[in-house]
Amino acid sequence: MTIGSYALGLCFSISSACLISWIIWRVTTTSQKYPALRSVAILVLGDIGRSPRMMYHAESFAKIQFDTFLIGYRGSKPIPSLTSPPHVHLRYLAEPPSFVTKIPFIIAAPVKIIHQIATIFSVLAFEIARPPEFIMVQNPPSIPTLAIVWIVGHARGSKVIIDWHNLGYSILALKLGMDHIFVKVAKRFEAFFGKSAYAHLFVTQAMHDHLVEKWDLKGKKAVLHDRPPAHFHKTSPPEVHELFLRLGSSLTVPLLQSFLPEASPPYTTPFTQTVNTRSSKNQLNPTSPTTSSRVAMPTLRPDRPALLISSTSWTPDEDFSILLDALKLYENRARALNDKNTDNQTPVSTRKLPRIWMVITGKGPLKEKYMAEVGRLSKDWKWVRCTSLWLEAGDYPLLLGSADLGICLHSSSSALDLPMKVVDMFGCGLPVCALDFACLNELVKDGQNGLVFKNAQQLTDHMEALLASFPSSPALTKLRSSLISASNPQHLGLDMHGGVEGWEWNNWEENWNKVVKPLVLSDAGREQEQWK
């Protein structure tokens, strides 16, 4: 497929979207009803279960008694709070016909767009019988959702809220280049249909400032930084113990068998241990109901490896090769240092380094390529292991809270959004090393709640400095203390500084109630000046 056919197919798709949307408008305006108050349709043109911010929006709307329709594709399980409340209704979009993947892109693109338009319109105009008071749409993707929501909002009298996660055209530019004709067309499409809305939400102040200046957005405007749910927390040793008992099968893969400390479930795991006071009779019957009462609370093992975690979408805006190169450098450094006899009085650069288990979570197109390379390299590694892991939604924050250091490779196609994975890590008390880009300082304060790097060598240097003397690592403890202090429950309801000047922190519910609730409830009493 050539770039020319790519552009032609997608330009035709945009034309199709506009034409069909115009027809939709003409049809729906003949039978318009007044919108139902305290109702919202939230549109995600993607897997609902892999769209945490939009799921959190739905949860927050439901908590204030909004009839909430969450629209998107079936895939990963949504968070548990969305599967039972009476105010939440999941509406799954039909996938495009299977034959679309077998035909040339120049034909498949418009067919896919037309199918998306038809299915989205079917839900917004027919399955939701009464027009919702609000329609919230995630951007990107921009095509065709912005056009559909713009027209359906006008036709049915619903107020449109655009939640700006990033800029759609900037993601397309990663593949085609910023000067490509279709990127320019996509940018104009996004600017036109995204310009006017009842309200605009932005994930960063930088994105707010950029779009207000460049596109002259019309409507109320507010920055809603990503924040973790209230239940995210630093995992306690008993929780770590239970987690790794559940993950037992994932720890027995050949790469890890001779690397992790020996374990004897249910009394020990590679990361935790208990002091067993069972009688000899109960030793013969580990499942005895009296056993658990005679086992001390689990504690962390001093001989455990350092647990590092990186959550990635395996896409071009996250350069996994940086982490791979850093792991190579760490392996070489650990081999050089750990062959020497050193003591705690020597400089940091000559102290022994721990073994590290690097866990990668997430799915994406580049996963197989890089994990195959990791597997090849790991055969010769002594101090480093790197494996991928897929977790249930409930276990993901527990693993984050069990880890010692988080790694973020997000670079942002627009340099205007922030990595939600870092937000999750901070919510679980996990210090982070993050790849630097333009607006990262809205989230990561270098040396205060994390460290920033620009290349593999800097990342390796940070890992060495933070993990020296592990598990008693002063530098790591300092960063973690800052995060835990900022999340202290006694500060709930306030901006949390955690002893770090200029660093505000709270959870999603508090942030949403402060920023979005006044937008959607007329009795919230927020001054208009707030939204300028």
From TrEMBL:
Its main location: endoplasmic reticulum. The chain crosses the membrane at residues 6-25. Pathway: Protein modification; protein glycosylation. It is an enzyme of class 2 (transferase). Residues 273-294 have a biased composition (Polar residues). Its EC number is 2.4.1.142. This is Chitobiosyldiphosphodolichol beta-mannosyltransferase.
